[in-house]
Design goal:
The protein is an alpha/beta fold and 373 residues long. The chain contains 15 helices and 12 strands. The strands form 3 sheets. It has a 6-stranded mixed beta sheet, with helices on both faces. The chain has a 3-stranded mixed beta sheet with strand order 3-9-8, with helices on both faces. Helix 1 runs parallel beside helix 9 and helix 5 crosses helix 7. The longest helix is centred in the middle third of the chain and has 31 residues. It is flat, with a radius of gyration of 23 Å.
């Protein structure tokens, strides 16, 4: 199960450099507005040291990481909601992703001194963020206001779905008109029923999606402590969102190195891991996802589930038959394995837990599912 996140931002903020580094896609995109027209799509593994820990005790033929789908969406400009810069097409690409990674330029000149043109002629992270936010809001407001008359007509026919849809539209319209994103209502649990949440999803509200800010910094500020990155941190804190500082240029160089050379370069930079590892994990967290593991001779594998998933739901990620015929789950933690060295020892120590249909999965569970076919 690959979850999809869209990388957005103004033109020339480093989106495509970041995308290429994350997906090790090779040559960098051209440095001019709308270099990316059709969205590039890539798969990136979610870095997870626990997989290698499990594999050191249960050696497999292969390791399989949890995966995210990343979509590199073309640069959005002011007026995109009215079609500027092919904006409507790009906004439609955002509707299809689960979360937004908003890349914000936090460097004056690119590492190495290259002068990269800013689309508005100046480097101002907050103005950049507000430009994107405004376009998403305006697009949503246009969607809602064009849908309202149709919904009002449909309600006259007593269609239950139309009644729910109209209720959702009426909740959205005043909030969007005030310049506040649809996710404000989501966070306030304003859509109380499953039917309302389905109706909201069908509207494809851009501003309902959760956001991870990626502060693209220069190579003298890899930890994002400079004034431009701090502006992004303060803005994100007000929204309850995360920020990950990344020097996309450095990350693209790291992505091309073998493990030994990469570790040496990281040590020279004073970093313990590539910033892109933090980005992948932050996207995972943003979407409310967690991993559990299956382990055997063929493979040690991470499976992606929503936080709060039950054991049968987790089994269904492997195969629907597992969920349908679920009997029980036998589970233990990675720490149990580290302490006791084998599944046999875990069983003998009474640490292999037997869980039923009501069990809520914990992040990092190692599981064997028993089921009827």
């Amino acid at each position: 199960m690959a979850t999809e996140a869209g990388i957005v931002g103004l033109p020339n903020v480093g989106k495509s450099t970041l995308f290429n580094a994350l997906t090790a896609a090779g040559a960098l995109a051209a440095n001019y507005p709308f270099a990316t027209i059709e969205p590039n799509v890539g798969i990136v593994n979610v870095p997870d040291p626990r997989l290698k820990v499990i594999a050191s005790y249960i050696p497999p033929q292969k390791l399989i990481y949890a995966a995210l789908r990343l979509v590199d969406i073309a640069g959005i400009v002011a007026g995109a909601s009215k079609g500027e810069g092919m904006g409507n097409k790009f906004l439609s690409h955002i509707r299809e992703v689960d979360a937004i990674c908003h890349v914000v330029r936090c460097f004056e000149k690119a590492p190495g001194g290259e002068d990269i043109t800013h689309v508005s002629g100046k480097v101002d992270p907050i103005s950049d963020i507000e430009t994107i936010d405004t376009e998403l809001l305006l697009a949503d407001l246009e969607t809602v206001e064009s849908a309202l008359p149709k919904a009002e007509r449909a309600v006259k026919g007593k269609d239950p779905e139309a009644i729910i849809r109209l209720s959702v539209l009426k909740k959205l319209q005043p909030v969007l008109a005030e310049g506040r994103p649809a996710r404000v209502l989501v966070e306030q649990n304003a859509f109380e029923t499953a039917d309302e949440r389905r109706a909201l999803k069908s509207l494809g509200m851009l501003s309902a999606k959760r956001v991870l800010y990626i502060a693209n910094v220069d190579d003298s500020d890899v930890l994002g402590e400079g004034p431009l990155a701090q502006q992004v941190r303060e803005h994100a804190a007000k929204e309850g969102m995360q920020v990950v500082p990344v020097c996309a240029k450095i990350e693209s160089e790291l992505a091309e190195l073998d493990e030994a050379d990469r570790d040496e370069m990281l040590a020279d930079l004073g970093l313990d891991e590539p910033a892109l590892h933090k980005v992948a994990r932050a996207i995972y967290e943003l979407l409310g996802l967690q991993s559990y593991y299956t382990a055997g001779e063929k493979e040690v594998r991470a499976w992606t589930i929503p936080t709060g998933a039950t054991a049968p739901q987790a089994a269904g990620v492997i195969h629907t038959d597992f969920q349908r015929g679920f009997i029980r789950a036998e589970t233990y933690s990675v720490n149990d394995l580290v302490e006791l060295k084998s599944e046999k020892a875990i069983r003998e120590a009474g640490r292999m837990r037997v869980e039923g249909k009501e069990y809520i999965m914990r992040d990092g569970d190692v599981v064997h599912f028993l089921f009827n076919t």
